[in-house]
Amino acid sequence: SLVYLNGDFVALEEARISPLDRGFTFGDGVYEVIPVYNRRVFRLKEHLERLENSLKLIYMRNPLPVEEWKRILDRLVTENAGDDQSIYLQVTRGVSPRDHVFNDEMQATVFIMTKPLEQPDNSAGSAAIVRPDIRWQWCHIKAITLLPSVLLRHEASLSGAREAILVNQGLVTEGAASNVFICESGKVLTPPKSRQLLPGITRDLVIELLQQNGIECSEYPVPETQLRSADEIWITSSTQEIVPITVLDGEMVGSGQPGPLWQHAARIYRDFKQEFSQH
Ligand code: PMP
């Protein structure tokens, strides 16, 4: 497939990066994952704004103007296989001698690839485990430094679960690679934005769509005890969409089946996507 690397469009097999790239030596960079439906980039403005914010928080300038990002993404999405794709883009602080200290002269490395995206079928429900949030204090940055998340997802997969839902000081933060919603007495709750969680693009969209459709949804701290007694649990992310969690640490969530609010939310989300991809 065709990828973009520092100004060039090349085959993935041809792309080369120095071992002194700070992404490799320090995990010093940020990224985005953006879904594409019918060759149209979904929630592009929101993803580019979050990228801008991640860069600012790690003291980097955005290496490309918005119009250039759009032009590059359009070309990749047009030339690569699949009407539906997922874009992975990463910006690192570039190549430098291995020294923690950085300066403004460093030339960012920009790498972008896409792959075909299968529409998820979430109707069966999935399992999750609950784990202490062992990540750092700045989880609102979409940093490429993902070792804790990799280990947490490994633990989840060893337990036959899809996701690890994380708890920090008694409160649910998010999943290792997703945001978390719970349902209780017909209402939907999700933890408020803070430095302890990534402001998910899907999270924002789900809140907006639920409210537009008359389903009560609020941002409110969720203690672990409330997670464990919830009627429904969902996790959200751009490529997985809305996933009903039907088993938590081996125990049934509610009836053990995807719940009625999930059914409703999934329908609303599907219709919104469909509307988007037809325009
Ligand atoms: N939280 C974390 C830690 C994530 O890595 C992700 C994305 N994989 C999300 C939440 C969901 O974000 P989005 O809806 O923007 O994909």
From TrEMBL:
One of its GO terms (cellular component) is cytosol. It is an enzyme of class 4 (lyase). Gene3D superfamilies: 3.30.470.10, D-amino Acid Aminotransferase, subunit A, domain 2. Keywords: Aminotransferase, Folate biosynthesis, Pyridoxal phosphate, Transferase. Its cofactor is pyridoxal 5'-phosphate. CDD domains: D-AAT_like (cd01558). It comes from the Bacteria. One of its GO terms (biological process) is amino acid biosynthetic process. Pfam families: Aminotran_4 (PF01063). Transmembrane segments: none annotated. Pathway: Cofactor biosynthesis; tetrahydrofolate biosynthesis; 4-aminobenzoate from chorismate: step 2/2. Its EC number is 4.1.3.38. One of its GO terms (molecular function) is transaminase activity. Signal peptide: none annotated. It catalyses: 4-amino-4-deoxychorismate = 4-aminobenzoate + pyruvate + H(+). Involved in the biosynthesis of p-aminobenzoate (PABA), a precursor of tetrahydrofolate. Converts 4-amino-4-deoxychorismate into 4-aminobenzoate (PABA) and pyruvate. Belongs to the class-IV pyridoxal-phosphate-dependent aminotransferase family. This is Aminodeoxychorismate lyase. It comes from Methylohalomonas lacus. The lineage of its organism: Bacteria, Pseudomonadati, Pseudomonadota, Gammaproteobacteria, Methylohalomonadales.
